[in-house]
Amino acid sequence: MHKVELxxxxxxxxxxxxxxxxxxxxxxxxxxxxxxxxxAAKALDFSYRHVWGALKDWEQxxxxxxxxxxxxxxxxxxxxxxxxxxxxxxxxxxxxxxxEALRGDIERAFSTAFDDNxxxxxxxxxxxxxxxxxxxQTSAHGLHLDIRFMGSVDAMAALNDxxxxxxxxxxxxxxxxxxxxxxxxxSLLKPGLHKLIGFAHRQQGLIVxxxxxxxxxxxxxxxxxxxxxxxxxxxxxxxxxLDDLLAEAGLMPSAIQGYDSQEPSxxxxxxxxxxxxxxxxxxxxxxxREKGLGFVPLVQExxxxxxxxxxxxxxxxxxxxxxxxxxxxxxxxxxxxxxxxKQAGSGKVLSLRALLPWxxxxxxxxx
Length: 367
Prior knowledge:
Layout: H1 23-34, H2 37-44, H3 48-62, E1 67-68, E2 76-77, H4 79-111, E3 119-125, H5 129-139, E4 143-149, H6 152-160, E5 166-172, H7 180-185, E6 194-208, H8 237-249, H9 266-274, E7 280-284, H10 285-290, E8 294-308, H11 315-324, H12 327-334, E9 339-340, E10 349-350, H13 352-355
Parallel strand pairs: 3-4, 3-5
Antiparallel strand pairs: 1-2, 5-8, 6-7, 6-8, 6-9, 6-10
């Protein structure tokens, strides 16, 4: 059985009877009405060669004859050609309401492209509950965030490759110069090339079962025999954070049962714990509360947005900055468990060297 592919055209106005158009059906209908290929071509404003070649190509593709090719005779459709036209009319009539609804949805989606006051911003970012809330808010104001959640490292690489306009990542306040965070982001972020925009403060900690029945209080508890940990994917900011926290606590990754496990998001970590597949996992408080789980806070971190310096003046980025600075966004952010906005300087362009100080090296004084 042959398959159907749908396509559409953008035009200033619709045809009177246009539902889903198909060039083969248009030609078959014209041949049926006009009685010759040359007259059908003229009616459709095509050349004879174009119509004749198209019919031959479709016959080869379908493996059936469409036209009775008798010289000196009025052009007519084969029985198969007539059945094709009949089937198409039946389908169009039966599906007309759905087709009209689909066309309306597509037109409304494309209306954004023709609205000079609307903007679309492509954002690759580490998984975050506040970004989903921001997308809902900005959409109502004409700023459409095309967000793709991925690890912070992949998001930054995508920004530097030109595959997105902005990236999102998170680090602790004043991360140490020799930390895993510094090693991860030093080659991806450069003062003078990138611009940092404040987004939010958020709590990271251990997501545990409701009421914390195992009495987990710190990372050291994860090394207890039988404790099952669920980790985030390599390249995520949360996994980088875990490596720093383990190093500071003097723990080896091999001491954590489940260190090599991988989940793609905070929500997935919370679900693994809610289902009983794991006892604990590092994640954000919002994901724990959403699943009705317990939460052991460990660190506060800054979630940053970053763009290339050249993109900062663009309408999309400026529209986002305006949203982040609004009272409405501050209210939304402060209602999310574990989040705050004012300390993070939401919507402010921040100093890369001040917040990520591993580029600042003091020269030793000459002896």
